[in-house]
Every structure is written in structure tokens, then in C-alpha cells.
Specification:
By secondary structure, the protein is mainly beta. It is built from 3 helices and 12 strands, in the order αβββββαβαββββββ. The chain has helices at residues 7-14, 62-67, 81-88, and strands at 19-20, 22-27, 33-38, 41-45, 50-56, 70-75, 101-102, 108-109, 115-127, 130-142, 149-151, 154-156. Strand 4 (41-45) and strand 5 (50-56) form a beta hairpin.
Length: 160
């Protein structure tokens, strides 16, 4: 194996891992909502209930997440691809015209998602060009439906 991994080849290899799609949100000190599409998300612990997500330090949400006490997670459902694409755009007002719900902490959550998690930021760790954000789940809700899936640069769904 080569000692240096080509970035394009690495991206191609990791693109073969199917993942769910989330929208991570936070609210700044003046009450403005910030959010972005994140597929680098996973459960971390059941006791205490912890999740983690990875945020590129160059992302527009990065400074808001760095200062946040709380984050919201909306696990997207099949049929929410347009919303995922919108929250993945750079330099867009992602919330304009998008209905939201408020978690107990005040962060925005996306209606019609499969799950909502309201999290207190428990830790942040630098790793390469990303920050790993650990959230302790303080409140949650689940809903029926099928997940939005991302695989090899395309959206899809599970066929059962």
C-alpha cells in the first residue's frame, strides 16, 4: 500500500459508505439560526446519550458551532432531498421560507424529519480539517418514515 493516500481516491473510497443525512443547526447569541447538511453523524454512547458530528472548519456554520452551547439534529426522511441540497449550498440563506420547529433549547428543527435531537454541546475535538462535536442528547422525538440515504454522491432510499 502506498504511504500517501491520494485525496480523490480517498473521497471515492469513503463515498462507498452509505450514510443517512442530517441537518445540524444552532442559534447564535443574537438569535439567528444557522444550519447545514451533515452526513458525518453517528451515535456515540447510550449512557449518557451522546452523538457526534464532524464539521469542516471552513464551513460557514463552523464559527457558530464553535461558540454554541446547543445543537439540533434533524434526521432527514426520504423526500427531503431538496432540503438537504439547500442546506448544503454555500452562501445561501438556508432558512429563508423554510418552516421550522423549535427544540426546548431554542435551536431550529426541520419538520417532517424522522427524528429530532436537541443536544447540549459536551465536547469539541480538532481532527485534521474538521471539528468533532459531541452532543449530549437532552430531548428527542421520533417519527415514522423512510430515511434519506447518501451513497457515491447521490441520494437514494432503502428498499424493503
Amino acid at each position: 500500500m502506498p504511504s500517501r493516500v491520494d485525496p480523490d481516491h480517498f473521497r471515492d473510497a469513503l463515498g462507498r459508505f452509505a450514510s443517512g443525512v442530517t441537518i445540524i443547526t444552532t442559534r447564535d447569541a443574537v438569535g439567528a439560526d444557522h444550519g447545514m447538511t451533515v452526513s458525518a453523524f453517528t451515535s456515540l454512547s447510550l449512557d449518557p446519550p451522546l452523538i457526534l458530528c464532524c464539521i469542516d472548519r471552513a464551513a460557514t456554520i463552523a464559527p457558530h458551532i464553535a461558540a454554541a452551547d446547543c445543537i439540533g439534529v434533524s434526521v432527514l426522511a426520504h423526500g427531503q432531498e431538496a432540503l438537504s441540497r439547500r442546506f448544503a449550498l454555500k452562501d445561501a440563506d438556508r432558512f429563508e421560507g423554510v418552516p421550522i420547529l423549535r427544540a426546548p433549547s431554542g435551536v431550529a428543527l426541520v419538520p417532517a424529519a424522522l427524528a429530532h435531537l436537541d443536544c447540549r454541546v459536551a465536547a469539541r475535538y480538532g481532527a485534521g480539517d474538521h471539528t468533532i462535536v459531541v452532543g449530549e442528547v437532552m430531548a428527542l422525538a421520533t417519527f415514522a418514515g423512510e430515511p434519506l440515504v447518501y451513497f457515491r454522491g447521490a441520494y437514494g432510499h432503502l428498499q424493503r
